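Minutes, methods subgroup
Present: GH (chair), OT, SY

1. OT presented the first of two proteins processed in the latest run. Sequence and structure tokens recorded below as shown on screen.
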Amino acid sequence: MKPYQIIYYRGFGSPSAVWLTGRVLRQNELVSPADEASFWDNLSSSVGRFLTHEVSNITVRIEAFGQVFRTVTNKEGYFDITVDPAIDPPVAQAWFPVRYTLEGILQPEGYEGAREVVKDGQLMIAPAYSQFGVISDIDDTVLVTGATSLWQTLRLTFLENAFTRLPFAGVAAFYRALQSGAVTTLFNPVYFVSSSPWNLYDLLIDFFRIQGIPKGPILLRDLDISPTMLSAGGHHLHKVAMIRKIMAVNPQLKFVLLGDSGQQDPEIYADIISENPDRIVVAYIRDVSRENSRDTAVQHLIETAATHNVPMLLVPNTVAAAEHAAALGLIDPDTLPEIRADRKADQE
């Protein structure tokens, strides 16, 4: 049998509520990609992400903040728990250690002997001095995906790796500027929300690291091949639920939203704005649509957001969004040359 693996997903929360989630599988450990991996290596790694052997009904012991919490995996191997850390976080700290252990489980013989199955991870709590939070889509907002084309999405997912996938030009520098804020000693938390499956989590972690995109929780969803998951409605409901969760555990923060016009980000963000008009500073929508009818629909949603006194902008590129953010006082204007240079380098 293959070894047990605890796949942890970066947790997040506040001094009174932290959300922790992950998955328990039996598989060989996934390795980071090589820069010049072959077609077959990429395909093999990608297929391996989806051919999983889930471990259900296993107790996971979670150690964080000097406390112990427990939860149990479901039939797909996922665990999910919200805990009250009951702490007063250090002023200058945003990331905190967390340890996951499978209770009563030892690795099978041949895998470094009989030992506990342990995984060390991290969780993020926004510091009290954060000015705002950032919630960003991933597909066709950060990562070039072609999400409006199924075949393009499949080709990029299965035949490319974290080194060969492309970011949208200038994204890394812009997101670093947002995280730093107008005063570059600050830390504004960045959250990434997507309807892509959790199976792609390790690829996204590697991609963000390689591209220099700020570290933050990445919220994906269970791979459930069903009409609900594949429908626009399933995509919409998942992302709205995740954004609500982020906002619920950060009641002190306002948010900047970033997405694209290709799928439903404008509709999703319009819903969030209507629910919480006083907590959304601005929404930036990258224009990736080639259809006039889609631009017309997005424009209508922009007008709806304006009735709540929240600007939603349809922007052609990262630099346009960054210039507007600088004018609003969200980022340091001195970061604009770096963002322009980053966009040019990415394009080249």
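2. SY then presented the second protein from the same run.
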Amino acid sequence: MPTAFDQTLAAIDALHAEDPRATTLTDGTSMPQELAYAQRMSDWLDRVHDAPDEVLRLAVRAQHLQRWLVPREEYPEGRVGYLTWRRDQGKRAGRRPLN
């Protein structure tokens, strides 16, 4: 039976898998861009942290949750536009239920 952590990770990955943008992996296959990014960040965390707890592992995996829904291009160029976009992304992600 999957643990609550495993179920949460699967729910996060299912949302990442909805990304309509694809990225090509080194083996020539493709996958949703945000899912590939999330997996890459989890691998990075395992390289730089000896024993990350579940909360940190989930935070790293979910940091770009459905980021494609609010494109960066919809905000002005420059620092203020970028920081506004990041703030709005955080608010949107914080309101998004996983189920």
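Chair's summary of item 2: The chain has one domain: 4-95.
Next meeting: continue with the remaining queue.
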